[in-house]
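User: two proteins, same treatment. go.

Assistant:
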Amino acid sequence: MLKQRVFTGAGLIIFALLLFFVAPKPVFAVVVLAVIFWSAWEWANLSALLSKKTRFFYSAGVLILVFPALKWSQLSLLLALLWWCIALLAVVSYPRSATCWAKGVTVRLVAGLFILLPAVVALLTIYNYLGAGLLLSAMALVWAADIGAYFTGRALGRRKLALAVSPGKSWEGLAGGVMCSMMIGVALLHCVFKISVVASLIIAVCVSLVSVLGDLTESMAKRERGIKDSGHFLPGHGGILDRLDGVVAGLPIFLLLWQWLSLPLSMS
């Protein structure tokens, strides 16, 4: 299983590099929309939408809503901030918060819109205005937090972070993940893109924390659905959302902070 995960992970990294730096913009856009479609499909499954036909219509609807979300991009990003505040309350109060989740499929499907649409808005905005290099750096903050949390948690993890949601996560792992993200933030944002150390650290800390919240939110949804993975698209990794939950949460926050800290709106 570990070997399979390593091979799949390496393949994903190579694919991402080719997509970001080699593929023409139309190809990039098509791949992003395809990933969003499949992510919406997986979220519909997490929401207990059992009919494949209904899942298809939901996923297609998410794709259609991408275009108005891009038009009102600032509102989309602010809605993401609002959603992740709500998600934090839901995770902290779980399993009591499960009563809200269980009220109906509509609540869960609307939550999917607040998760996916701002993510694609942030991704396309960063790619088009700030560049592929900065987009990859934003994603690297999330990956660093994930890897750092995993190894620190295995070595030092004692106090559970969210026992009812994800028993494997610890406060020590969270601290290790944030520290790794801070180091990557300084190495990339400060040393490469010449952003101040303070701004780099603020972005790294906030993005890493929200990425963990994204992971916990998906774990909560899977626990309520009674499944281990969001899908089986990636060998050894589960579904697309299993790999991108932190990125989906972190990118809108990255872009909001970039704007609020009055950083350059174009890196060209």
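Protein 2:
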Amino acid sequence: MAVSQNWLLRPFQERSTQIFLGVLFAALIIVSALHLFVPQDSALYVSSYTVTLLGKYLCYALLAVAVDLVWGYLGILSLGHGAFFALGGYAMGMYLMRQIGDRGVYGDPILPDFMVFLNWDTLPWYWHGFDMAWFAFLMVLLAPGLLALVFGFLAFRSRVTGVYLSIITQALTFALMLAFFRNEMGFGGNNGLTDFKDILGFNLRTDATRLGLFIATGIALAFGYVICRGIVTSKLGRVSVACRDAEARTRFLGYRVERVQLFVFVVSAMLAGVAGALYVPQVGIINPSEFSPLFSIEIVVWVALGGRATLYGAVIGAILVNYAKTVFTGIMPDAWLFALGGLFVLVTVFLPKGIAGLLQKRRRAQPDDDTPTGQEATA
């Protein structure tokens, strides 16, 4: 899929991108400074727990950007992006498990603890290579990317669209969840992968490593945002919007709609995989619950609240909803699903374009400083 050479530089000329990156990097610097240089007994001190929590929010923000790319600009309502997120997380989790070595409960230098517990004799073939960081990081991209490539090729070639495509994507993530729950799959079953020790030689339990992961997640979010903005502002992005608004007419004009859809879908899946890979070392566990169809639906709510086809709106929605979830589940954990459903209904009725749409409406309503007033125009 051809794109212009300066497609990656074009977003930096946009005021919205400049503001987004400025706010993001300012937040990274402020949080880091409050964590490193403020005394722990101060009200301004940011604890390691808060740093990790914010890092998790940024992972979700990157995931929301990936979903907004295909839903907002391509018109594909994917209810299966949780699967791509989880696959990236499992790829990272497998690497972290191999780094434990003989420090596990059973002291086996090769087999993870859950395999020893299940009386496995040898390491499965698909675990080989995950003791090398470069291989694991490559699989973070390839595992969700290849799944999206195969699934997207079959779906888009068959011209499956609309609600039918959404149902199929949800069925995909549900099937993967059931598969990963099985112990014989070799991914830890119901308990998943956990008890990680270090990453790239750095102890995951130290404050410095947690802060480093938080900063790395923020940088990944910045790169992911710029890549998506570069795509949507290029010719490829304009064709994507045309596919969203009038697929039959776009096809009639000679564009290979399936190729456009497949390319954007694969890029989105790989970004979701990166988000999952950054999520796992910060929360310390990855299990089949990340494949839950409910989680994929929740991602859509983030994007809907923030505003489709804006990218920065997806970031806003992801952070706000997950912050509300953190607070709400601490007060009334059983009522969170009802609150989430009510939030989705309210957004659909009163904020069809999300928070970003509300901000854009207010900005358009404000007169520019260079625009003459009525009296000046008649003078």
